[in-house]
Amino acid sequence: MSEKGLDKKLLERIKSLKMEKNGEIMLQGFAGTFGVKDTNSIRDLLLYVADNFGFKGAGPILSRAGYMFARELLNEFKEKGADLIRKFLEFLTLNGFGIFEENVDETGGEIVLKNSIFTENFQNIDECIDHFVVGMLTALLERAFNRRYIVLETECSAKGDPYCKFSVKLAQ
């Protein structure tokens, strides 16, 4: 990152930032705006919801939260259809949610998520736990194609799978 144009005080603060090995700091642009991906906080949130509602109860709650989060965020995007899907998944990738690969159209398909922020601190869990992502993807597909979809996580790195995979089908 070029230091040209950065305020000295801001530069000192950026250089002094530290993060545990289970998180990372992402810097964007010269202004030094940044977002912190703190996987411990995400793990703690999932465990808090699961402690209060069980892992089965956490799914619908976190899925709904992801859906509402994405619906609001999608208002910032002007694209439609496949272009919206590509742009939004690129945005999520650049903001630390993981690396998305998609093979979907308006009839369905699948989306793969590698290095999911939601599964980094979990290993050998018996079920898929990317509920928030399921909600985000559902909102994304509905906005992109103006149809209703069912998104299911079929593979999850928290279960020991190599990545998280989401099946996309049109709702009947």
- Going across the major beta sheet, what is the strand order? 3-4-6-5
Shape: globular
Q: The biggest beta sheet, please? A: 4 strands, antiparallel
The name of the CATH superfamily of the domain at 62-170 reads Trafficking protein particle complex subunit 3
Structural class: alpha+beta
Summarize it.
With 172 residues, this protein is α+β, with helices and mostly antiparallel strands. It is built from four helices and six strands; from the N terminus they run H-E-E-H-H-E-E-H-E-E. It has a domain of 109 residues: Trafficking protein particle complex subunit 3 (Muramoyl-pentapeptide Carboxypeptidase, domain 2, 2-Layer Sandwich).
Characterize the structure shown.
The chain has helices at 8-16, 39-74, 81-94, 131-145; strands at 23-28, 33-38, 99-105, 108-114, 149-155, 164-170. It is globular and about 35 Å long. It has a domain at 62-170: Trafficking protein particle complex subunit 3 (Muramoyl-pentapeptide Carboxypeptidase, domain 2, 2-Layer Sandwich). A hairpin with a 2-residue loop joins strand 3 (99-105) and strand 4. The strands form two sheets. It has a four-stranded antiparallel β-sheet with strand order 3-4-6-5. 28% of the residues are buried. The protein starts with 7 loop residues before the first helix and ends with a strand. The model is unreliable at 1-6 and 18-36 (pLDDT under 50). By secondary structure, it is α+β, with helices and mostly antiparallel strands.
